[in-house]
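Entry 14. Structure prediction run on the chain below.
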Amino acid sequence: MVTTDFADFADMPAARIVLVAAISSGQGKTTVTAALARKLRSLGQRVRVFKCGPDFIDPMLLERASGAPVGTLDLWMVGREECRSQLAAAAADADVILIEGVMGLYDGTSSSADLAREFGLPVMVVIDAAAMAQTAGAIVMGLRDYGPVELAGVIANRVASAGHAAMVTASMRGVPLFATLPRQDRSLPERHLGLVLPGEVAGIDALLDSLAGQLAFDADAWSGVRVTRFSAPDGAPTASATPLAPSLAGKTIAVARDAAFAFLYPTNLDTLRALGATLCFFSPLADEAVPEDADAVYLPGGYPELHAETLSAAGRWRASIQALHATGRPVVAECGGMMAIAATLADPSGVVWPMAGLIPGDVRMQRRLAGLGPQGLQTSHGLLRGHTFHYSTLDTDLPPVAHTVKHPSGAPGEAVYRSGALTASYFHAYFPSNPAAVAAMFLPSEPR
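Output returned:
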């Protein structure tokens, strides 16, 4: 239950919550959300940030900006009750909750607008005002009325001057211009899958501080954003509150963690722990072998194509994963993890490098997007939900044992490969959506 009736629900968790959205990708949502989070922190506010829709990189930057873990909200992949539970928990210990939307406000099934309407959240629209003035008002009115959504205000990005800001403000017909951000001499760097990882950006904290300092912030407009209160979840317990059967008790799962294997949901690790597994971490890029006591290995996605030469030369890593696979211990490889265990990987310049070779086949990068969007994998334990996003292709003679299903069309999605106890696919699974199916992947004798 979500409400704004303070008299009857004064003891409920409450916070000022806005969903930061735009007309499309490329408007500066992530930059603005990061700047706003850092700005509010500097003003003494306790800030929590969420990302709407499947994403790995933006949450890393937003965590850096806000100083707190960033959760994922998605009505289909995460589920309505789990989203509500996460928001209620955050509202209990935060003054402000910022939710960065995905793509354009109404894009996708479910969309950012669907999330806002489901929980009665006001929307803050980011517009790229670099090449417009009064037309900004028409865009904002359209975004507000098409759904409709409750509009809290506007943040204008790439504003050239105070006069430019005044023209934008005059076009809003009473909608508050909440903040402006000028054109940046230095922007957050990007590559083919999105922003460059924060740990790779020199002076990232200074850049975030600079963005926050340049955000012309209307404190009176912010004080007008209503407080949203959440009741405790009722009915069936949420996934995060339901104790899981310890089906992985006594198992040690080795997880690859470095710049080549950085794409995973933190809740995936929480789910493995809740299933009873002990986690240990290692770095293939540092040529660390898989820990000898590992009962299984999890290779998440990342950027192996940017580190193909290093991975190719990492003899201890390659030998150890080959040896583990030969013993019949499970390996779960997602997207970049699968790319790193193919026979070869061609980097973005076309140079071909030998990889670990657990899957016969060759991975090549391409300029055109090869897969994008929410998908689910049907298992004997029900649907395991997740998504896909990649620019590479795998050419292999290994026949797939299954395909994911695209949401909402139901069309066939990513191939799923098995070789012994290895499960590999471009599909990124959201483990909390079906813990039993996840446990089965790490237990080779279990039906999948």
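Residues 1-10 have pLDDT under 50 and may be disordered.
Filed with the rest of this week's runs.
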